[in-house]
């Protein structure tokens, strides 16, 4: 199943979703309404290779909790990803067994190409 994990209230996510061809091929999962389960996070981890790759260091909570000043381990990244949706680097696409993390231009272009 092809999926997109996103935040419905995120302007960047909404803009990206509007630009997607064949978005009806995706299952949409709003991470605020449906928090990521441990099994979903595990699937992402298997595809990404690390929890840190899924973790957003741009999140305001990251800064306000002082996490940027700590030496976080993979276990820490996993814990925070499960605790609060804001720590997931969004959007995350899983398409045909491949993961695309975040909103950088190259990543989104690859997703558009794969969905076309």
TrEMBL record:
* Superkingdom as given in the UniProt entry: Bacteria
**What PROSITE patterns does the record tag this protein with?**
ARSC
| One Pfam family from the record | ArsC
Hey, which family's this protein in? Answer: Belongs to the ArsC family.
User: What is the official name of this protein in its record?
Assistant: Arsenate reductase
Write down the species: Flavobacterium tibetense
